[in-house]
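TEACHING EXERCISE
Course module: macromolecular assemblies
Task: Read the component lines below, then compare them to the predicted structure of the full complex.
Student: A.B.
Group: 4
Components provided:
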Amino acid sequence: MAKRRFSTKSLGRGLFSIVVFLILWELGSSSKHWIGADFFGPLRDALGAMGFKKTWLPWIGMIPAPSDVLRAWAGVVGDSGYWQSWYKSFLRVMAGFTAAMILGIPFGLLLAVNRTAFGIGFPVFEVLRPIPPLAWVPAAIIFWPTQELSIAFVTFLGAFYTIVINVVGGARSIDVRFFQAARSMGSSRWDIFRRIILPATLPSIVVGSAVGMGITWEVVVAAEMISGGGGTGGNGLGFFIWNSYVGGSYELIVVGMISIGIAGFISSELLRALGKFVTPWLRLR
Amino acid sequence: MGAAPDAQPAQTRGAIRIEDVVKIYEPDGAAVMAVDHCSLEIEAGEICMIVGPSGCGKTTLLNAIAGFHDITSGRITLDGDVLCSTGRPKAEPGPDRVVVFQNGALFPWKTNLQNVAFGPVMQGKLTVREAREKALGMMADAGLAGVENNYPGEISSGMRRRVEIVRALMNDPKVLLLDEPYRALDSLTKSVMHEALLEIYYKNKVTIFFITHDLEEAIFLGHKVAIMTTRPCKPKKVLEVNIPHPRDYGVLTSKRFRELIEETSEAVHEEAIKAFQTGEKEG
Amino acid sequence: MLYRLSLWLRSPRPFLMLVGFTLFLGFWYLAVEVWKLPRFREMPGLTTVLKEWTNPDPAYGLSIYTKDYYSHMWTSVWRVTQAFLLATALGVPLGLLLGWSKKLKDFVFPVFEMLRPIPTLAWVPIAIVMFVGTEPAVIFLTFLSSFFATALNTMLGVESIDESYVRAANCLGASKRQVFIHVIVPGALPFIFTGLQISIGVAWFSLVAAEMVSGQFGLGYVINNSYTQVAYPTIVIGMITLGAVGYATSALVRMAGNLLMQWRIRELAMGEQ
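Instructor-supplied answer key:
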């Protein structure tokens, strides 16, 4: 139903609202400078009852303004520590994600193809899945010798679940007729696996990867914040944010947030491009 | 000279004139002509069958009449009123020209009865109770008694088609637009559906605009059969089927029927070969 | 339903399931308590955890007999419920509108997509700054990720609706508003509920993260605290409880979906025959 035609009109509207968003943000944050304390009196009290801070403009008041954020960002761009954080986080994400793919795809395929394996493995998998990856952090710290490995393990878990689910789902929905056609043309079981199951599952793997990537970033940032980000000289963007908070530089918090957002976006796009490369037949739909 | 020669009053509404219609698509910058100066006249109350190879543009015509797509130039009128023209290229979809879709578009989340009663209720023409009563009656007439409270997903596809047709007819439309409705059915079910359709037709003399690729289906059902060229489409040959209505199963083996098939199958075959050679994608 | 249960029992599936669990639990038990493998030594073993869990007077304060266990559980559940309901109440309408109106999507979606990739925990400092007290902050964080997931999936759901349904409704004389109510909303419902199941999973994820960082109550806190207090078996108790509760809430959402989509069940039932 949605036709993705790239029109300048859409682009214009998008840019317009981004600009509006930034303007509103700027105004809201600097409101403490030009709006009196009692201006929003009753509204503030009402919001205060709901738990919002009763500072100048109900909740935006304390958030740093875009202009301050940009200034802070310009300041930190020259700092090698900032880029090291980028590098560290990216590394962790890639490591955990790759591990999840390497283990998850074969595992998922095994479950999908072999009914006995499915019967044995899937229930255990499904029972463990609702336990959020972060809940594994303490257990991982106990188990793994280094902090880096425990973060990697937790990251791996997050993506692993999603990828497996998507692979299993994709493999199970392969049209039966593909199998019948192949068998009638004399394919061996290995052939069928290689030429039918694998390619047909690829789209689901790609989708699973995209979602898994998002989760991986969440987990990495969370793990970095929780475990204090130490490790072998590593900081990471999560730690960057937490540090900025502790150090009282609120602008840098936002810088960190946006940086992660951008990093996440880049990795998703990379993955999507890779996915398109691997499944050329979908492009022609 | 298409209306049935029996005692029932001839239909006076639902005459469609397609005048010199052109439709050009531009999917990725390259202009593709789907309909090429097509002109066709369909009389009120007539069953007009459009036959052509897949992807030739026949659905485009139907979409133009229904108001789903616009035309590039030309004119389509219904009973003299302009539906769409070069100046106003897109018609508004409406209950005077209801469509029965190729893959069925009964709402899966409503019961068959709710589906059938949908039109008049939405338009405010009948209250919910009145609509349901009328729906029950029409469904019974069409041999669909007993499935009112089932969901479309629970009944066979043949029955679903019939429910969809009844849903359309509830609105007392001028024209019934059918887009290869029986394409996915097996030939046994198809022949039953044909008789069912004719039965419904004899009770409600709507104009029927029926797209198909099946020549036998076309000649069996239609007053008029328009054989279209492969893309871009225009009428290659228009045939008046002078087998009298009401028709039944027996017509299929009649001499006249066989003669008509002979006359037209060559034309159809020619276009089919052309379509095959240019590798038409499913339209 | 009983029929299907009996069918299931007669298949090899329950047996295989048992095999799976036995292998898993067996490995855990053996690795930690019997063979005492290198890294597994330090971990709390299966029997230790079970004993603690079912102990009327637990060494570390939490078992199925203690009140605290249930109050922590309830705190987490209640937080998730609030956040999830709020996220659904805001996310579904937004998603529906974004899918329905191309114009609105042009305006709103870019900003939405800019904010979405920011991980939940990255919002923690901002949340602390915005809200008084832990509770609203935790709920806000949980709400955020749930909201984005719900809105996005709802929007995708609307966009996946077969065009023919909308066209049919138009033919039958429905106004835009009627199309929205009678076609778009029911048509998107299956996708919405898939999204909701994802959403509640994500909510639990964020909740645990938030609780670990800033809470004094809740299962996330329990896990984190047990670690710092070196009460290792309780960590596992917390994890298992989380898993169980997470699964239960997810199942509730699924059941709600099945209730609302009777037609789907019957359709699928036809397909299975």
